[in-house]
């Protein structure tokens, strides 16, 4: 039998399984698999579900599916304790229990630090056993909101910044993560484990990180919703970095509403991340859930982009696949600006923008700073990481994948002329993009996700990817809405309006 044949048999067997008992009732798998945060909170209030039973359910799903999907690196040994604590808080009607995500299990990408029994390794054995000084800023906020830290999700090792040709979803600790819809398909992006896990109902919600495409791409390819926030809207403190100039933390969930509830809990000022001070001004009074409006598309001006490599371009297959979506946007009241508006030097976003040059310089400084702050670690510099990989080349699959990006970054010597030119060029591109958006009174642009990621990445702009169907092979397709800094309220209205009008998401098919 082929490997894919074994995979099919595995999925056929594992999906024929008994229901689980919940407080004397029955929570059937088909009910639990696509359950939303709102559904869970209602079940809590009606005493049909407890956090303990929900955590037990997700642990059982991880134990069943993770041997094949390889999207979870660790389960939190304290998850059930946290669940019992949440159940008690709800029973005593503690103020904390009123939070939208109170008692909700959440998986964290394994570059987000937790000061507990979990490791934070960016998928590498080099950081296994290291001790972080404190919870990441977003984890502190999750704990204050009463969320349950279920465990750590796999990722493309070092957030896909060790080498050019490491496959999406591969890391030394977890191996190759698998797209749950079509096993041979790309799981995409470095936050692949977070997207796969919630897509396959191994967790209620998750967090990912993005430097360029690592939330939007896996969300698109795994039929889930991903929000890449405005730079600094969420804290990056305690997150294994690539570059503070572009890194962002955001939710990956099955629905727009779930993603918004998580976003609402993790935004805000953090004294350990200066960027949060600048971006806190964008947080709306009353929070983000108020923008979950079914008529959110009405009156929105959306740019349909046609630049090669960015929008719908001249690819007839893409245009034909998304034409029904564009009609739906119009039907729901959106105004589609379907013309080739001029973003000065737009092709540079996808070629000579200088992003790679700047990132190489910034990674060395950022990772050295992160490593030096660890309480316990076998490695303290990028040079140490390179030596570790050389020493354990068999373990790290160095011979096959290498560490070209590490080596290039280590060879940099600070902010030289090439770096300064790269920064200047990117600032020029961002000004052109912002001028185009404002001059044409655009609320957002729309692209087949994740084609928009370079524009959003180098400018620190927000974007949301929403499920938009499946191709002829069953591989998920996403649609991305992007805007200007602080435009999350408009993007949420647009994304939620589209989701509610189409409802494309369906559970994984587990095809070979």
Which terms would index this structure?
512 residues, alpha/beta, Amidase signature (AS) enzymes, eleven-stranded mixed sheet, two-stranded antiparallel ribbon, 19 helices, 15 strands, signal, Amidase domain-containing protein, AS_sf, Amidase_dom
Characterization of this structure:
With 512 residues, the chain is of the alpha/beta class. It has a domain at 27-291: Amidase signature (AS) enzymes, CATH 3.90.1300. 39% of the residues lie in helices and 13% in strands. The chain contains 19 helices and 15 strands. It has helices at 3-14, 29-32, 37-45, 51-69, 79-91, 137-144, 157-160, 192-199, 216-221, 256-266, 275-279, 316-331, 355-372, 382-391, 398-401, 404-410, 417-439, 453-459, 488-502; strands spanning 20-22, 25-27, 72-75, 105-109, 148-153, 170-171, 175-176, 205-210, 225-228, 248-253, 301-304, 335-337, 444-449, 463-470, 476-482. Strands 3-5-4-8-10-9-14-15-13-11-12 form an eleven-stranded mixed beta sheet, with helices on both faces. A two-stranded antiparallel ribbon has the order 1-2. Helix 4 (51-69) runs antiparallel to helix 5, helix 13 packs across helix 16 and helix 14 runs antiparallel to helix 16. The longest helix has 23 residues, at 417-439. The model is unreliable at 1-26 (pLDDT under 50).
């Amino acid at each position: 039998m082929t490997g894919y044949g074994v995979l099919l048999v595995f999925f056929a067997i594992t999906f024929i399984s008994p229901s689980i008992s919940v407080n004397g009732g029955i929570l059937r798998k088909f009910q639990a698999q696509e359950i939303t945060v709102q559904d869970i909170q209602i079940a809590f209030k009606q005493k049909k579900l407890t956090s303990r039973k929900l955590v037990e359910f997700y642990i059982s799903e991880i134990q069943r599916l993770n041997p094949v999907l390889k999207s979870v690196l660790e389960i939190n040994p304290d998850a059930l304790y946290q669940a019992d604590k949440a159940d008690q808080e709800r029973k005593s009607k503690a103020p904390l229990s009123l939070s939208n995500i109170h008692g909700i299990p959440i998986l964290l990408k394994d570059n987000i630090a937790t000061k507990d029994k979990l490791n934070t390794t960016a998928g590498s054995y080099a950081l296994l056993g290291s001790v972080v000084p404190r919870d990441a800023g977003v984890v502190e906020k999750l704990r204050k909101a009463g969320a349950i830290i279920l465990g750590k999700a796999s990722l493309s090792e070092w957030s896909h910044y060790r080498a050019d040709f490491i496959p999406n979803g591969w890391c030394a600790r977890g191996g190759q993560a698998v797209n749950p819809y079509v096993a041979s398909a790309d799981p995409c992006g470095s936050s692949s484990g977070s997207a796969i896990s919630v897509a396959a109902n191994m967790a209620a919600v998750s967090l990912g990180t993005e430097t360029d495409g690592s939330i939007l791409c896996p969300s698109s390819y795994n039929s889930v919703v991903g929000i890449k926030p405005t730079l600094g809207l969420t804290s990056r403190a305690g997150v294994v970095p690539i570059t503070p100039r572009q890194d962002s933390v955001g939710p990956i969930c099955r629905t727009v509403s779930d993603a918004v509830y998580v976003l609402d809990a993790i935004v805000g000022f953090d004294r350990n991340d200066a960027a949060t001070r600048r971006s806190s001004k964008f947080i709306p009074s009353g929070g983000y859930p108020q923008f979950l409006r079914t008529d959110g598309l009405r009156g929105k001006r959306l740019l349909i982009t046609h630049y090669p490599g960015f929008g719908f371009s001249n690819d007839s297959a893409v245009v034909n696949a998304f034409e029904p979506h564009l009609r739906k946007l119009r039907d729901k009241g959106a105004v589609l600006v379907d013309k080739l508006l001029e973003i000065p030097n737009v092709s540079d976003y996808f070629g000579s923008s200088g992003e790679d040059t700047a990132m190489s310089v910034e990674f060395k400084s950022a990772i050295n700073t992160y490593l030096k702050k660890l309480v316990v670690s076998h490695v303290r510099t990028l040079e140490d990481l390179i030596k570790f990989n050389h020493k354990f080349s068999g373990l790290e699959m160095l011979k096959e994948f290498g560490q070209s990006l590490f080596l290039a970054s280590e060879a940099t010597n600070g902010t030289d002329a090439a770096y300064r030119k790269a920064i200047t060029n990117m600032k020029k591109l961002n000004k052109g993009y912002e001028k185009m958006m404002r001059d044409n009174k655009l609320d957002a642009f729309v692209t087949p996700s994740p084609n928009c990621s370079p524009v959003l990445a180098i400018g620190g702009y927000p974007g949301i990817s929403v499920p938009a169907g499946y191709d002829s092979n069953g591989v998920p397709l996403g649609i991305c809405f992007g805007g200007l800094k602080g435009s999350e309220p408009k993007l949420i209205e647009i994304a939620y309006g589209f989701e509610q009008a189409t409802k494309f998401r369906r559970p994984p098919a587990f095809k070979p």
